[in-house]
């Protein structure tokens, strides 16, 4: 067995661990699970730490279980939240589960015959036929209210700071999650639950149920909640969550998120979100510190994680798209961008619309620059810029005799105007 605890410790992925866990894992192949909230049909990068924990667990020779919380997703976990979540119906949860399993398959081996092949389980499968009376008799009587009230997640919600209070539904959440651990202990020989540091209270309720009901020994391990050095929330951009689904967050935007990481965060994230060895990371970090302007850490981090979540081809396209603004890209490079990526690359760049009929008839560049777009304040300014050779159409320099036509359209609908190195303008043909 490889030493899983040692691995996640140097990677900065260990927050708290129950005594005896390391020795327990070194004895033989063990089974551990991480719970995943199925409230959307895609994981986002906030889920990735738990997924990476499961992957390292599998690499170390152990068996990972990914638990999709179909039942708990219907209730809502109070940990770290100030109010209740929307509850989902079963059909939506099943759809989300299938989508999540497909994404997890990029990280975990579900399909091999190896004894430590990963499994996906859904707590709705064992909770759906559990009556309320059976639950409070068979599970509830083993845990005191005093024990449940002592949990930080409960205390915070019942404190004077929380105007919302806490419903009975959410109060029972830790019992339902605790029962998951008990069920997997009995059914799958699962002896370890892992999760974020805000889950410690819920996880230890599970270890307590295993002890009281089965007289067994179960373990808990948590990882730190990922933060950013500037205090803003990890995993969020101005447009919301950074999703693993390319339809929700394009590979270009995904790549850009990691590329724009600060130096401090990049040193931390490259250990957590890649499988590079300690030696490789130390070597790369040293080179980065010698020449931080080259952003070696950010580039490597963005490359590794984009290939892992998407593909090598998606990475290549994301790099090409990134070079449009900052590199020596050509008209051909521009024409390879799909509409979504083109608009993302030039997000925030001023735009104007020109009728398709006018483009088909051909419009002289001076008219385009001033009258049709307002990119230049006057025809005279447009002519001076053209004479100075500072105007480009789709990255190619043009003169005053240039006529804009159908042949110049990117994706049959856009034209990119540029004045000097950094002033861009997008023409949309309608």
From TrEMBL:
Keyword terms, alphabetized: Aminoacyl-tRNA synthetase, ATP-binding, Cytoplasm, Ligase, Nucleotide-binding, Protein biosynthesis, RNA-binding
Main location, first listed in the record: cytoplasm
InterPro entries named among the record's database cross-references: aa-tRNA-synth_I_CS, aa-tRNA-synth_Ic, Rossmann-like_a/b/a_fold, S4_RNA-bd_sf, SYY-like_C, Tyr-tRNA-ligase, Tyr-tRNA-ligase_bac-type, Tyr-tRNA-ligase_bac_1
GO MF entry, a single one: ligase activity
Reaction equation(s) it catalyzes: tRNA(Tyr) + L-tyrosine + ATP = L-tyrosyl-tRNA(Tyr) + AMP + diphosphate + H(+)
The keyword Isomerase is annotated on this UniProt entry: no
Compartment(s) of residence: Cytoplasm
Positions annotated to bind ATP: 236
Domain Tyrosine--tRNA ligase SYY-like C-terminal: 344-427
Residues where L-tyrosine binds: 33, 173, 177
SUPFAM superfamilies linked: Alpha-L RNA-binding motif, Nucleotidylyl transferase
Entry keyword Cell membrane: no
EC number(s) given by UniProt: 6.1.1.1
CDD domains: TyrRS_core (cd00805)
Coiled coil: none
Subunit structure: Homodimer.
Record function comment: Catalyzes the attachment of tyrosine to tRNA(Tyr) in a two-step reaction: tyrosine is first activated by ATP to form Tyr-AMP and then transferred to the acceptor end of tRNA(Tyr).
Record-stated family: Belongs to the class-I aminoacyl-tRNA synthetase family. TyrS type 1 subfamily.
Official protein name in the record: Tyrosine--tRNA ligase
Gene: tyrS
């Amino acid at each position: 067995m490889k030493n899983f605890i040692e691995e996640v410790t140097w990677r900065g992925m260990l927050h708290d661990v129950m005594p005896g866990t390391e020795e327990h894992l070194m004895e033989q192949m063990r089974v551990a699970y991480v719970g995943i909230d199925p409230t959307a049909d895609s994981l986002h990068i906030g889920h990735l730490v738990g997924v990476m924990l499961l992957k390292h667990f599998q690499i170390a020779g152990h068996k990972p279980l990914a638990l999709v919380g179909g039942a708990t997703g219907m209730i809502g976990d109070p940990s770290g939240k100030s109010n209740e979540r929307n509850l989902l119906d079963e059909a939506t949860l099943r759809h989300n589960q299938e989508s999540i399993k497909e994404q997890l398959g990029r990280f975990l081996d579900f399909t091999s015959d190896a004894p430590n092949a990963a499994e996906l389980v859904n707590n709705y499968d064992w909770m759906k036929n559990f009556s309320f009376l059976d639950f409070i008799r068979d599970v509830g009587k083993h845990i005191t209210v005093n024990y449940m009230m002592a949990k930080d997640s409960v205390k915070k919600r019942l404190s004077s700071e929380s105007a919302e209070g806490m419903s009975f539904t959410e109060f029972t959440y830790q019992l339902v999650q605790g029962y998951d651990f008990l069920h997997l202990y009995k059914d799958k020989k699962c002896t370890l639950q892992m999760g974020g540091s805000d889950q410690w209270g819920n996880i230890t309720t599970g270890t307590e149920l295993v002890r009281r009901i089965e007289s067994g020994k179960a373990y808990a391990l948590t990882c730190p909640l990922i933060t950013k050095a500037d205090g803003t929330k990890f995993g969020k951009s101005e447009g919301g969550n950074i999703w693993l689904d390319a339809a929700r967050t394009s590979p270009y935007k995904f790549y850009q998120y990691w590329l724009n990481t600060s130096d401090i965060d990049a040193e931390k994230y490259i250990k957590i979100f890649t499988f590079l060895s300690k030696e490789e990371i130390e070597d790369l970090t040293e080179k980065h510190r010698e020449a931080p302007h080259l952003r070696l850490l950010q580039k490597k981090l963005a490359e590794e994680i984009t290939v892992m979540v998407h593909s090598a081809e998606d990475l290549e396209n994301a790099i090409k798209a990134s070079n449009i603004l900052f590199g020596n890209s050509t008209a051909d490079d521009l024409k390879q961008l799909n509409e979504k990526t083109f608009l993302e690359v030039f997000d925030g760049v001023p735009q104007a619309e020109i009728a398709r009929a006018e483009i088909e008839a051909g419009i002289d560049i001076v008219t385009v620059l001033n009258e049709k777009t307002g990119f230049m304040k006057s025809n005279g300014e447009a002519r001076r810029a053209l004479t100075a050779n500072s105007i480009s159409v789709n990255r190619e320099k043009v003169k005053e005799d240039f006529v804009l036509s159908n042949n110049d359209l990117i994706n049959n609908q856009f034209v990119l105007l540029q004045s000097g190195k950094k002033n861009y303008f997008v023409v949309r043909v309608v």
